[in-house]
Amino acid sequence: MTEPRSPVSASIPQPPPVVVPPPSTDGAAVEMDPVEYTLRKRLPRKLPKRRNDVYVNMKTDFRAQLARCQKLLEGGGHREICVHGLGLAINRAINIALQLQASSQGALQLAANTSTVELVDDLEPEDPDEAGEPMTRTRNNSAIHIKVFYPDPQ
């Protein structure tokens, strides 16, 4: 059997190859590739968007995300912000929260919660003429929600 064309199709369960008898009479069998699917990832369901929520991703520059958080805490009039990270962006969300705490000389405190988010992927056949209906699959992904806040003065 030949190797899949992309690493995405390697993770999709593939049906066994179809063996078709050749038109010649020498008895050799021809192996056909199973139907290939294209993976389309849907966007995750968003939490309620408030002015003090920051959704961290891996596409936006780290310094820009950090500056946005600092601006919300210092100039935005918020005493707390919530930094959200999903999947690969969890490390970046943690780093942003720790950078904010370090730059405030310990004036900020952190409270972190983790969760699991259910994501939906669409699987579409590459060649719609051959066969196969579009399918969906669900998978779980980790998320973190970090509350960065100034403690109430006692």
What does this 3D model show about the protein?
The chain has 154 residues and is α+β, with helices and mostly antiparallel strands. The chain is built from 3 helices and 7 strands. It has helices at residues 7-10, 62-74, 90-103; strands at 18-20, 30-32, 37-41, 53-56, 80-86, 109-125, 135-149. The strands form 2 sheets. A 5-stranded mixed sheet has the order 3-6-7-5-4, with helices on one face. It has a two-stranded antiparallel ribbon with strand order 1-2. Helix 2 (62-74) crosses helix 3.
What gyration radius follows from the Cα positions, in whole Å? 24 Å
Oligomer: single chain
Q: In one word, what is the shape?
A: elongated
Q: How can the largest sheet be summarized?
A: 5 strands, mixed
pLDDT < 50 runs, ≥5 residues: 3-12, 14-22, 29-34
Please state how the strands of the largest beta sheet are arranged side by side.
3-6-7-5-4
Distance between the termini: 70 Å
Strand residue content = 35-45%
Give me the strand/helix succession: HEEEEHEHEE
The helix content is: 10-25%
Mean pLDDT: 78
**Count of individual beta strands:** 7
Number of DSSP helices? 3
Judged by helices, strands and strand pairing, the structural class is alpha+beta
Q: Could you provide a short overview of the structure?
A:
The protein has 154 residues and is of the alpha+beta class. It contains three helices and seven strands; from the N terminus they run αββββαβαββ. It is elongated, with a radius of gyration of 24 Å.
